[in-house]
Amino acid sequence: MFSRALKPIAAVAVQNGAKNFSTTSQKNFKVVVAGASGGIGQPLSLLLKQNALVTHLALYDLAPVTPGVAVDLSHMDTPAKVTGHKGPEQLADAIKGADLVVIPAGVPRKPGMTRDDLFNTNASIVRDLASVVAKEAPKAIMAIITNPVNSMVPIASEVLKNAGVYDPNRVLGVTTLDVVRACSFIGEINGVDPRTVSIPVIGGHSGVTIIPLLSQAKPAVKLTNQADIKKLTERIQEAGTEVVKAKAGGGSATLSMAYAGARLAGSVLRGLAGEANVVECAYIKSDLTEAGYFANPVLFGKNGVAKNLGYGELNKFEQELLKAAIPELLKNIETGVKFVKK
Ligand SMILES: NC(=O)C1=CN([C@@H]2O[C@H](COP(=O)(O)OP(=O)(O)OC[C@H]3O[C@@H](n4cnc5c(N)ncnc54)[C@H](O)[C@@H]3O)[C@@H](O)[C@H]2O)C=CC1
Ligand SMILES: O=C([O-])CC(=O)C(=O)O
């Protein structure tokens, strides 16, 4: 399982690729936010309106407020034109000609729920959005935030396959929040600015499938005790639940997710614009493990994923984490694939 991993990634590339938003405007990109009026969608759209690479920001949601959210954002003095699209009859217009479709549409968790408990509601939402992307913007990059991410990416991929337009380099599950959290917690422990921390988080986006490679963190995590390393690993794995509990029925992470989603979207766009060395972790079609989809650092380019950078050397503890993650990932992936095939 481990021999297929590539060489350790250059941590500096992760840091630089991930954290410097471009101010150049080499190209004009249409970006769609599907689920734009929600807890993630609104602040994500606010951040994307500030990205100079975005010249058209199309906001799509079922919520009646959506055209109003678009008018609100359109008053910001940044270049992107903003359009609002409400309801399925306006979806094709929203998606047509998109370069990037970011999807936070769907229901969030309440305390006591797992991400898998969202499957029944969110699967058909992602399936239906993917089928319109297949028709109206088959070359668009799809960045899926909707949970459970581990199953939603296979769903979108199967829909695109059925439509004959699937390109595995253009379908991503957004796991950036796991990296953002790991950097934040390590920054706290090390007493350094979290923006100077870089770490790959691999696997998937739920519980045991979230594998922070603390042994590859730069700078090294100032923890020597294995019990503390285990505790930090579990905090990163359960950080989503920490937010769900703290919001006490008011939903899950929205603001930190918007930040993470804007960062991922910005990196995708910089890759599309031809910038070199743009690296982020993302959940993609993969043959590195037995799981058909897997998250680890990837290089973005003019056509989406340009190179899978692998996950480097794992220590014994991380190998055990990977072993625990694979059966869960396989199950999540199968659930997604079966949903489209049924
Ligand atoms: N990948 C990640 O790291 C994270 C993923 N999430 C997931 O993101 C999703 C959204 O979370 P929130 O924004 O907090 O939820 P929310 O309920 O605040 O917003 C969801 C929005 O989606 C819209 N929507 C529902 N069905 C739709 C459809 N068919 N087409 C377009 N829009 C539709 C709703 O009207 C609503 O505005 C959830 O599934 C949540 O679990 C949340 C945090 C982190
Ligand atoms: O925990 C949730 O349900 C939302 C999520 O994916 C996260 O915050 O990582």
UniProtKB/TrEMBL annotation:
This protein's record includes keyword RNA-binding: no
EC number: 1.1.1.37
Lactate/malate dehydrogenase C-terminal domain boundaries: 175-340
Active-site positions on this chain: H205
Reactions listed under catalytic activity: (S)-malate + NAD(+) = oxaloacetate + NADH + H(+)
Keyword NAD (UniProt): yes
Coiled-coil portions: none
Primary enzyme class: oxidoreductase
Protein family: Belongs to the LDH/MDH superfamily. MDH type 1 family.
Name of protein: Malate dehydrogenase
Phylogenetic placement of the source organism: Eukaryota, Metazoa, Ecdysozoa, Arthropoda, Hexapoda
